[in-house]
Amino acid sequence: MITISLCMIVKNEEKSIGNCLESVKDIADEIIIVDTGSTDRSIEIAKEYTARIIPFQWIEDFSAARNFSFRHASMDYILWLDADDVLLPEDQGKLYGLKKTLNSSFDAVSMIYHYAFDDFGNVSLSFRRNRLVRRDKRFQWNDAVHEYLDVYGNVLDSDVTVTHRRINSSMGRNLAIYEKRMDKGETFSPRDLYYYANELRDNHFYEKAVQYYGMFLNCDQAWVEDKITACDKMADCYYQLGDQEKEKEAIYKSFSYDSPRAEFCCRLGFHFLNKRQFKTAAYWYRSAIQLERPIDGYRFCNESCWTWLPHIQLCICYFHLGDYEKSNSHNEIARTYRPADENIINNKALLEPLLEK
């Protein structure tokens, strides 16, 4: 059986760190907490699970802190989590089983990351991350913000899921770090441009975000998946700015990188639905449900666009087109995903008497 070091960096996570550590305490052989300046009860709570709590002077560089935590690990493999991540009971069992059976020839293990949820507890955003890595490979973290672990070699894509339970908001923190770097005259990599644009968008600086998404899209060496996502986020910025034509241009630009994704088909459907062009809107929503979902789990997927959203929108389109049977059929499919959604329940109540007639 392999041994595992859990490495975490924390700051003021008293509301979540206990749940995180409780969910992995029986799996990790050692727990290393690198604290970057907590002033709340985070350290006190962490001491209930480990004595390996190491201070680190915060230099506004997440990779530096994570690499520091990795250097203190002593087991075969290193598992990394954030304080607001948890392993649900089913996934605790899966990870323990993996620990007992993992072939040491694997350099890394990726796990599914359920990052965001809708109001009904359904996963709304998921992707994969390399979570468990061989210590002797000395993999390094890169980039000061939105850091990534540079992994290579033999990687196992596991069925273990890490669940994100965000409590604290970091709004503005990362943007400030990027702007300090910019003030120092640092040259931004394509990846920096992309994530800086994301921070601008998240903080509602839509016009400036569009500018930096454009700069990123002009970089030849950028990852194509980030370019596709940048088109989606650029379209959202233009929607917020009320520029429907630019929004549509950003959507169509995504098609130059790969075949259409459900996210963009739903965006086009919504564009034409707002124009009350119900037939055209229905075409794009039908396209969304007919697409084959990408197998590559490292892509960012908006789960709603691949599940219930196009169906509830088709319910609206077909209602206005006078086809109540199709409208009801799609509403029922949406209801399988969101049985407590008041909009879907109201649609059902509206459609049933019309179908009886």
TrEMBL record:
Q: Which domain of life is it from?
A: Bacteria
Every copy of the Glycosyltransferase 2-like domain together lies at 5-140
> Which PANTHER family does its entry note?
GLYCOSYLTRANSFERASE, POLY-BETA-1,6-N-ACETYL-D-GLUCOSAMINE SYNTHASE
Q: What is this protein called?
A: Glycosyltransferase family 2 protein
